[in-house]
Amino acid sequence: MKVLLISDNRCRENLVPFPLGIACIAAAVEQAGHEISCLDLMFSQDPAADTVARIRSFQPDCIGLSVRNIDNQDKYRGEFYVPDAREIADAARSETGAPIVLGGAGFTIFPLECLEFMDLEMGIVGEGERSFAELLSRLEAGAPLDDTPGLALCRDGASLINPPGPHAWPGLFPPPERELFDVTRYNWKPGCTPPFVANLQSRRGCHLRCIYCSSPTIEGRMVRAREPGAVAAELASLQNDYGIGLASFVDSLFNYPADYTRELCREIISRQLSLRWIANLNPLYCDRETMALMREAGCAGISIGNESGSEDILASLKKGFSKREVVEAVNASKELGFRINCFLLLGGPGENEETVKESVDLMLELDPGMVRVTVGIRIYPGCEMHGIALREGVIEPGQNLLYPTFYISRETEPWLYDYMRELCDEHEGWNL
Ligand code: B12
């Protein structure tokens, strides 16, 4: 089959990621013997026209459309991206009758809602390498689709979501296919904005139980790691084949399991790369030996997922670590010379004036350099936060959460955003 793969993401917030998800799909679809064409709409001046032009030149039998972001998770400066994706789907179906299959992180959280919003019939939830290849072979053979693993289907008023197939070890998948994308456009140089950043993934899955997070829904709870040599080779290829100077690991937890991370760092060190990289760390697993190896392997910056500085809120968010572990993680990182990003996700269950003060005071005391502040927590279906919001009457049963909906404690809602706005304006490196 001829398969056109489109990355719809045009969000310019935060670090702007290379479309790694669709590049993984491209590699798997190619490996399954299909002919592919890839379209990254990030830099498109006219996405709909570029989509139509590509369909006319490539004549696909099937289109895969990647929906990474639904919204920007911001209660006060909200951006909703699904209409943009629908615009692409509309442009595509105006030009071809080829089936359009959705996929992606954002889609996986809201499959039926996205299909309904975009008036499409099918998509693949979760990791798509195997399930999309399976769907393509069934489409090619004209075989029944309904029990395809990971299939989300909305047809003739009926809908279904099949569980994704059993999570595979990422090492079973081919490395992302980057040749069909312009990776060099994601070669971020400090000071350039917005920062377009190349990326890679060494492991998938998250076993933690943070009450608001959708990562386990998307990647599963079992942490599965790739062969360290393969990951180090991919990092080397970013430097040698694409001239990338800085890359971002997208792993939710780069420092778990620690023995794997150490082995990966030794593999990277053995390649003596000049490329620098950044990663996400969890305070629970910040041991100095691993962090020193990360430094030696070229890690320049880390994001520490602390989210709060209040013992009560760390407990209510079920972060699984204490204030002491946050302090130790930041101090170790400072001593080792990392650029540090900390976070305050404020307004959750139990948040009040005292807990906000505790969080702000801890960040001011630790002075990590950068503090990214979010006021109000995005509610995702299937997360514990969803149940809490229902019980507290923040949302109605059956409410469509595709439309960005947030939880903020009653005690903080009247003042918290303005208070943090002012505080961030007064402190360099604090962003709201
Ligand atoms: C790492 C990450 C970041 C990093 C990115 C760093 C970088 N340079 O890449 C940072 C911190 C910068 C970031 C920023 C943001 N992020 Co983010 N990010 C993630 C995270 C943890 C991993 C994404 C990733 O790269 N995964 C690895 C790739 C390989 O997986 P994948 O993209 O899911 O692709 C697989 C499947 O989805 C599927 N698939 C993908 N496309 C397709 C297409 C088809 C046709 C098929 C069949 C299958 C398929 O197969 C792929 C391979 O298995 C996810 C959460 C998660 N666990 O997924 C959130 C996530 C995607 N981010 C999210 C958001 C909102 C954002 C921000 C808007 C937040 C903000 N306001 O700053 C920004 C936007 C950035 C931008 N400009 O686009 C949300 C999206 C949901 C929503 N509400 O919209 C997520 C889901 C987190 C969440 N809390 O819910 N992010």
> In angstroms, what separates the terminal alpha carbons?
46 Å
CATH topology of the largest domain: TIM Barrel
C-alpha geometry: globular
Number of domains: 2
DSSP E strands, number: 19
Give the biggest sheet.
8 strands, parallel
Q: What would CATH call the class of the largest domain?
A: Alpha Beta
Can you walk me through this structure?
It is globular and about 60 Å long. The longest helix is centred in the middle third of the chain and has 15 residues. With 432 residues, it is of the alpha/beta class. It folds into 2 domains: 160 residues, Rossmann fold; 231 residues, Aldolase class I (TIM Barrel), CATH 3.20.20.70. The model has no long low-confidence stretch (mean pLDDT 96). The strands form 4 sheets. An 8-stranded parallel β-sheet has the order 2-9-12-13-14-15-16-19, with helices on one face. A 7-stranded mixed β-sheet has the order 3-1-4-5-6-7-8, sandwiched between helices. 37% of the residues lie in helices and 19% in strands. A hairpin with a 2-residue loop joins strand 7 and strand 8. The structure holds cobalamin.
In short, what is this structure?
With 432 residues, the protein is of the alpha/beta class. The chain is built from 15 helices and 19 strands.
Write the layout of secondary structure elements.
Blueprint lengths: L1 E6 L8 E2 L2 H12 L3 E6 L6 H12 L3 E5 L15 H14 L4 E4 L1 H5 L1 H8 L3 E3 L4 H13 L9 E5 L2 E4 L34 E5 L2 E2 L10 H5 L4 E2 L2 H15 L3 E4 L8 H13 L5 E6 L6 H9 L2 E6 L6 H6 L6 H13 L3 E8 L6 H14 L2 E7 L1 E2 L5 H8 L14 E2 L8 H11 L3 E2 L1
Parallel strand pairs: 1-3, 1-4, 2-9, 4-5, 5-6, 9-12, 12-13, 13-14, 14-15, 15-16, 16-19
Antiparallel strand pairs: 6-7, 7-8, 10-11, 17-18
Helix pairs in contact: 1-6, 2-3, 8-9, 9-10
Bound molecules: cobalamin.
The site of cobalamin has 46 residues, from β2, α1, β4, β5 and α4.
